[in-house]
Amino acid sequence: MTVRVRFAPSPTGYLHVGGLRTAIFNFLFARHHGGVFILRIEDTDTERSTQAAVDQILDSLRWMNIAWDEGPYFQSQRMPLYRAHLDRLLESGHAYRCYCPAEELEKKRKAAESEKRQYKYDGTCRHLDPKADPAGRPFVIRFRMPEKYPDHFDDLVLGRIPIDEERLDDWILARSDGMPVYNFCVVVDDADMRISHVIRGNDHVANTPRQILLYQAFGYSAPQFAHIPLIHGPDGSKLSKRREAEYRKLGMSVSVQEYARMGYLPHALFNYMTRVGWSAGDQELFSLAEFIQKFDLDGVGKASGIMNPEKLKWVNAQYLKAEDDHALAQKLVPLLAEKGIGTTADDRLAKIAECLKPRSNTLVELAEKATIFFIAPTAYDEKAVRKFWNREARAWLEHLVEVLPELPLADEAAMEERFKGFAEKFSAGNMGKIAQPLRLALTGSTASPSIFTVMNILGKDECRARIRRAIEELGKLG
RNA sequence: GGCCCCAUCGUCUAGCGGUUAGGACGCCGGCCUCUCACGCCGGUAAUAGGGGUUCGAGUCCCCUUGGGGUCACCA
Predict the structure, then answer these.
(1) Measured in whole angstroms, how far is the alpha carbon of residue A403 from the centre of its chain?
(2) Is the same domain home to A348 and A388?
């Protein structure tokens, strides 16, 4: 049997990380088994579905490099298929028209609630003669619960799930406007698309019995179900778009595209998300090829996980360090442009990326640190000024400006040798005593890549200008 | 509240009857060092509780507790 799986988001907003994880699990499962990964947009809720959301979801998936093999299919374009299936159920008696007004049903529901009773549809229209339909009156289509049904189903990750205790009534298949409802469309579509495995969040387990009954009513065999654990926010509850403000404070988000904005690499996000709820021994970092080779449902745990932005950051830092310097430069260009720095992804920018990547967790951080190579410091760290800019420092910086023309800036190893000589002369061999005042002059702070790398990237002219400016400032200190 | 699911360090997890309960993030030390990082070395920290089963339970069963999910003419 060929594996066919699908990711079926509803386009009511951007792609959120929980959905992303479901997409990843399906994608990896398909690739691992040489199967087909299908994308289906569940837009039967015309009130809430938007084209903008569809675009955002597709963009996020593309950004994550999660490529689908079929689709996207849109449920809104498959009405004839649903109609035909509805008719089939109506004809076979597995469904019937219900004319109960929504308000009345709502009243009954409220009543049940106040009496602390479980609400169930009372079956008012269950035994109406289908031929005696009161023409013109609005109706919904309900499923006719069979007498007999399976007492459980087997979930690939959760195991045996009982359904005999399930609260099942004659639920609605199609709204009064004729639009079929989610629980109906999934089944028709999954059957029509010959889905072999339904891998989805375990917030869907309660829906599964109904869907299984529908398969049964149609005479279709049901796919295998795999309900993966949800990902929760730091407070332990389901990730919610409404909590976004709180998440932002913690350096996280529910929005996939937000991670792009925050400077995360798509594969880092991919790696992190996959590893919550799935593992293969002690390994933390996987290439896509490794994920495909190792991913399977038996590695999926049952317990839900909590999103940990700190670890995501670490994973991202790992991939940042491993990223090619020119590729990084490429990604940096637009971020620098936002800061008003116009540059191309040249060798110089690659060199900047190289020395900054072990010092950054995200692309945004990297771009931030990179500015110092384009814009001379306008202020100097006060504490550092007091500590490093003294009379000796001034003498040393003045000497440096003088000998600058003959220094081999491009040869960092040779520069280090020359500096050892300077250290002997100006600070009794203490490299720190000459490096720090210079670093302060060049960058305005006491933290930067190797001073030799900084000089190399800046070049002689820029170094001279910055050092002179520093000497000037130093002079004002008296 | 009914029903369902889950339960190993703060977090992600390994473990699939016999381990000094392992790894990772974080945190704390140390090393490296021109600063900051990276890296390396070390440390901190867990089997929710109670009953069983067994020669032997993190591993199997039951109960309690805790957490989560779900109860629409949403998906």
Answers:
(1) 52
(2) no
pTM of the model as a whole: 0.95
Across the strands, what pairs with A142? Answer: A96, A172
Q: What is the CATH number of the domain that holds A431?
A: 1.10.10.350
Q: Per CA to C1' distance, which residue is closest to B4? A: A206
Asked whether residue A63 is domain-assigned, the answer is no
Residue A247 lies in a domain: yes
Concerning whether A331 is annotated as a catalytic residue, the answer is: no
User: Which residue has tokens 């500015």?
Assistant: A371
Closest CA to A224 of A196, A252, A253: A196
Crossing angle (nearest 10°) for helices A363-370 and A347-356: 110
A394 occurs within a structural domain: yes
Written as one letter, the residue type at A278 is: W
**Options A107, A110, A241, A311, the catalytic residue:** A241
Q: What is the pLDDT of residues A314-359, one digit of tens each?
A: 999 999 999 999 999 999 999 999 999 999 999 999 999 999 999 9
Helix (H) or strand (E) holding A152: strand A152-155
Same domain, A426 and A437: yes
Distances in Å between the Cα of A298 and the Cα atoms of A157, A202, A260, A332, A353 are 7, 16, 31, 39, 40
Q: Which domain holds residue A329?
A: 323-373
> Among the residues of A241-287, which ranges form H helices?
244-249, 256-261, 266-275
Q: Do A461 and A409 touch, CB atoms closer than 8 A?
A: no
Whole-Å CA distances, A89 to A73, A92, A188: 24, 5, 12
Say which CATH number the domain at A327 has: 1.10.8
For the CA of A236 and the C1' of B48, the distance in angstroms is: 16
Task: With a threshold of 0.90, tell me whether the complex ipTM lies above it.
Answer: yes
Identify which of A448, A11, A37, A20 has the alpha carbon closest to the alpha carbon of residue A264.
Answer: A20
Is A423 in contact with A431 (CB distance < 8 Å)? yes
Q: Which nucleotides of B are covered by protein (CB under 7 A)?
A: 1-8, 10-15, 22-26, 33-39, 67-75
Same domain, A352 and A297: no
The last residue of one of the domains, among A284, A302, A320, is: A320
Total domains in chain A come to 3
Tell me the pLDDT tens digit for each residue of A26-65.
999 999 999 999 999 999 888 889 999 999 999 999 999 9
Residues A409 and A445 in one domain: yes
Is residue A110 in a domain? no
